[in-house]
Amino acid sequence: MAGLLVSGGLRLMKGGDTMSVIYALLIIKGLKTYAQVPAKLQPEVKTYLAASDLDENGEPLPAK
């Protein structure tokens, strides 16, 4: 989750998509699901989650 916060925060400072970061954090907190994310935001939300080693459900990715 720290990776998401860092990458999201840096992206926001550079004018990134605020809503994508918010949706990613809501997924991590269990308040929203990936299916509830608007289709146009899903790719970026998935990128934020993957940057934090999380899948679309906010669960840890399998160890490599």
Automatic annotation (TrEMBL):
Protein name: Transposase
Cross-referenced NCBIfam families: CD1375_fam
